[in-house]
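Sequence in, structure out.
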Amino acid sequence: MNKSISEMKNQICWASKEIYQRGLVNVGEGNISLRVKNQDEMVITPSGNNYLNPLPENMVHITFEGKVITEGKKPSTEYYLHRIFYEQRPRVNCVIHTHSTYASILAVQRKALPMIFEEMGVFLGGGVPCSEYARTGTEQLGKNALKAMGKQNAVILANHGLVIVGRSVKHCVFGAQLVEKMAKIYVTSISMGKVYEIPEEILSNLSDRFQVEFSTI
C-alpha cells in the first residue's frame, strides 16, 4: 500500500475516535474523508463506520466517481457530499459529516447558527448557514450544502446534521467540536431570551486571519 494512503487511513481512524469520544457521532453515523494529493481520489470511512474501534484496513480508497481502488469495506454512501467540496474548493483536504446533537437540533428547525463568539469568525469564517433539504446520499444534498456554505467552512444540513471542511484533519476535528459547542450555547441561550450576535464589523476584523490560516476557498 502507498505509504501516504496508509497514513491517511490512520489519520481517519484517529479522527473517528476523536469525534466519537466527544459525542459528535454514534456508531454508524456520519463520515470522514481525506483528499489524496494531486489525484481525483479520496480515502473515506466505510458505510456504518465503527467509531469504537476503527481499523485502517476498513477505510476505503476511492476515486471521486466512487470506484474502489484499494480493498476495504463498502464506502460511505455520502461520498458525493465529500467529492463536491474537493472538486469545488482547492484548499479542502478533509471533510467531516457529523450528527452532533445541538447542530442537529438546528438542522431539524432548519435554522442557521449565528456568529456568537469571535472564534467562529477566525476558524469558520463566520456563522454556520443551513442548507435546503435534500435526501441523504443524493448529489443534490452535496450541491445544496456547497451553495449554502458560502465562503465559510461549515454548513448545517437540513434535517440531517453538520458538514465541516478544512485544510487538514485536525482543522476539521476542531471545527466540528467548535460548531457543536457554539450550537449548544445558542440553543440553550435562546430558551432564556434574546441572543446577542457578534457585530458584522467585528467579523471583518477577523477575516485576515481566517483567510491566511483557515479559509478553504
